[in-house]
Coiled-coil domain-containing protein 69 isoform X2
Amino acid sequence: MTDCNKQSHLPTQGGHMVEKERELELQEKLAEQRLVLKGEHEEALRVLRAAHEQEKEALIQSSQEAKAALQETIDGLTSQLQAFQAKMKRAEESILSRNYKKHIQDYGSPSPFWVQELESLHFVIEMKNERIHELDKRLIHMETVKEKNLMLEEKITTLQQENEDLHIRGRNQVVMSRQLSEDLLLTREALEKESQLRRQLQQEKEELLYRVLGADASPTFPLASVTPPKVSFLAT
């Protein structure tokens, strides 16, 4: 029985080994597939990035070309407009001055074509005249505004000059006021000194007069009258 049991366990162990080997093989295959997929993904990203950069450069170039073409179109339209305006001016001058007069001289009355042309030209002339009048008004308005601005600038300059003059006058008046105050103070000091000197002189004068008058009014002692002796001369 023991040998039978051993023999029965051997196939089981062999089956486990086979399963493990299969699992290992499967894991290796999965790892290889993962690496392949990762490489393919990175390659696809690289291709997409390259395509994106290429598309971006193409769009930039196309945008620049479109801008250049648009600018060229604008320049062309501007040139055409200028040429058309020049032609219209020449047409106005030539038709009104020569062709129309020649047609009148040759055919008499103007044909419907010329009437229509004249009406068109008249409309264009009226539109241009209105535009010219509008520009003239704007120009006159701008000139008026410019003159007003110049006048305001002149007034501002005048006011600034007057303000500076007032400041100078104010400073001069302050200096003069200080000088007058100093002169007045000196005058007061001189007057006080003069008054003090006068009082001193008056006092000295009074003292001197008092002394003089006091000496004259001092008491005098009377002297005794001395009678000279009589001398008799006898005849001897």
